[in-house]
Amino acid sequence: MLRVLILCTHNSARSQMAEALTRDAAARLGVDLDVHSAGTEATRVKDGARTVMAELGLDLSGHTSKTLWDVPDAQNFDYVITVCGGAAEACPVYPGKTVRRHYPFVDPSGGSLDRWRAVRDQLATRFGAFVQALKDGRDVPATYADSPAVTVA
What we know:
CATH class: Alpha Beta
Oligomer: single chain
Largest sheet: 4 strands, parallel
Mean pLDDT: 89
Number of strands: 4
Number of domains: 1
Strand order of the largest sheet: 2-1-3-4
Helix content: 25-40%
Shape: globular
Number of helices: 4
Low-confidence stretches: none
CATH superfamily: Response regulator
CATH topology: Rossmann fold
CATH architecture: 3-Layer(aba) Sandwich
Strand content: 5-15%
């Protein structure tokens, strides 16, 4: 089983949604993944994330914001993926076997539900492609830095 950590600054929105979407994609595609999310600091899971994920039938009610050190076996991940610049800069060093990736996403916080949905849909597309690459035995994308930004207010 491969272990995946999705890391963001507050573990309140993007990383929470990415965790649920990655687990869902793995279940649908039959890929055995142990998926976690964490932040460089803990706050709370935002209501916008809970709302737009519920629209897809994915329940975040059991999710809590946590730091890297709250995650089981925090130094033992096959993939560590940062989804915001702050987390990419603050991400700790991992052992040699860990593959680090940076997939940046716009922070939907403070935006409309349409903005939350747009970020959620980008996360679904990118993390779905990540899981599909694992299933196919291909290299996972190195980055999505060239992706278009969400423009919905």
